[in-house]
Automatic annotation (TrEMBL):
Organism in which the protein naturally occurs: Chryseobacterium lacus
Signal sequence region: none
Annotated ranges, domain GAF: 28-134
Any Pfam family matching the protein: GAF
Annotated protein name in UniProt: GAF domain-containing protein
Domain of life: Bacteria
Length: 137
């Protein structure tokens, strides 16, 4: 199975796995930089469809991480001014950047229907994953 899996399928599988195994990971998806443009484009994801398939750098939680290159853990999205609502169910968000050759090329975005669900362990697991992902991207 795995030798035939392309990158897209691997990312899809990761989304499914995380969504299945961690009950409060209710939407899991990838965004990637759109070529030379300063915008993110939605990649593989699992969860409710979103209107935000293209996000300019700086906009929302994702856009902020695209600019800063730093993990953003938002325990309660109601407290955020710069936030793009994908679903009224979303209460918290965790966005971790993905680097290749030192360049911020994208991110994993996790939405939760619970308030303050994410642990330091979640954050470290996602940072570890994104570090590993640079090897296949
Ligand atoms: N909430 C994100 C937008 C992406 S959706 O959550 C899938 C943001 O504020 O950037």
């Amino acid at each position: 199975e795995s030798p035939k899996m392309n990158t897209e399928e691997k990312l899809e599988k990761i989304c499914h796995l995380l969504n299945q195994e961690i009950p409060y990971f209710n939407w899991v998806g990838f965004y990637f930089k759109n070529g030379e443009k300063d915008e993110l484009v939605l990649g593989p994801y699992v969860g409710a469809p979103t209107d935000h398939t293209v996000i300019p750098y700086g906009r929302g939680i994702c856009g902020q991480v695209a600019v800063s290159g730093q993990t953003l853990l938002v325990p309660d999205v109601r407290a955020e001014d710069n936030y793009l609502a994908c679903s009224i169910e979303t209460k918290a968000e965790l966005v971790v950047p993905i680097f290749r050759n030192g360049k911020n090329i994208g991110q994993i975005d996790i939405d939760s229907h619970s308030i303050n669900p994410f642990t330091e362990e979640d954050r470290h697991l996602m940072e570890w994953l994104c570090d590993k992902l640079s090897e296949i991207l």
